[in-house]
Amino acid sequence: MIGKKVLETDPISVAEVKEILENFAEDHELNYEQNLTLDHVIKFSKLEVEESNKLIGELEEVVKKKYAIKITDMLPQDLADLRLLFAKERIPIKNEDLKKILEIVEKYRT
């Protein structure tokens, strides 16, 4: 990998990955890994891109973007599910914030 390096990273939601791969598949043939990824995101994508972007925007008022994206991808149903997302993180999150996050997520769950 001479001459290649990561210049920047920006996390994106599963819905965006799905849209990107579907658009790419229209013009190109997907390789094995891309096909596996597309199958995975089709099965596990719960929201459309517009809805997920709105949800991420609302969640960013409470948590950082990377956590907002994780929450959007999983759509946790209760405090236990939500706490699992933050189990390995070293940031303290108040119970009020967790409840607020669940209220925001509940608006988008179908």
Written overview of the protein:
- With 110 residues, the chain is mostly helical.
- The chain has 2 domains: 14-44, no CATH class; 49-108, Orthogonal Bundle (DNA polymerase, domain 1).
- The protein has 6 helices and no strands.
- It has helices at 14-27, 32-44, 49-59, 65-74, 79-85, 95-108.
- Helix 1 (14-27) packs across helix 2 (32-44), helix 3 crosses helix 4 and helix 3 runs antiparallel to helix 6.
Topology:
Blueprint: H1 14-27, H2 32-44, H3 49-59, H4 65-74, H5 79-85, H6 95-108
Helix pairs in contact: 1-2, 3-4, 3-6
The CATH class of the largest domain turns out to be: Mainly Alpha
Report helical residue fraction.
55-70%
CATH topology-level name of the largest domain: DNA polymerase, domain 1
CATH architecture of the largest domain, by name, is: Orthogonal Bundle
General shape: globular
- How much is the average pLDDT? 91
- Low-pLDDT regions: none
Distance between the termini: 44 Å
- SSE order, one letter for each helix or strand: HHHHHH
Instruction: Indicate the proportion of strand residues.
Output: under 5%
Q: How large is the count of helical segments?
A: 6
Radius of gyration: 16 Å
| Number of strand elements | 0
Main sheet properties: none
